[in-house]
Amino acid sequence: NTITSTSYAFERHKSQTLLLEEWTTHCHDTLKVNSLFSPTNRLPPSLKPQKHFCESKWAIYGHLIQCRTGHAFTGEYYSSFVPSEAISCPCGEHFQAQEHILAVCP
Predict the structure, then answer these.
(1) To the nearest 10°, the Cα dihedral for 33, 42, 22, 31?
(2) How many helical (H) and strand (E) elements, i.e. helices and strands, does the chain have?
(3) pTM score above 0.70
(4) Tens-place pLDDT, residues 41-76
(5) Cα distance between residue 80 and residue 13, in whole Å
(6) How many Å from the N-terminal Cα to the C-terminal Cα in the chain?
(7) N or C: which end of the chain has fewer CB within 10 A?
């Protein structure tokens, strides 16, 4: 009998790789194309935050996470729940939608 041992780092890497593969498959198979979160569903699953999230100030990072999860006070939210609030973006865009914030807004 030979005992084969692997390092902790190798086993951790193997587990993370398997997790990411399963998560990617699950997302591909189950996410709805025309849902409220569809702009963010186009971002591939990752075990680490995207570079632009890591390089943002904490307040901006918090706003990005709120937007990505659909829990942000945006024009899109205000048009549905608080019609008395402005729906425009501070950058000048007429309608502040989730997709605008994540993909277009400077």
Answers:
(1) -20
(2) 6, 0
(3) no
(4) 666 788 887 777 677 787 777 877 787 777 788 888
(5) 44
(6) 62
(7) N
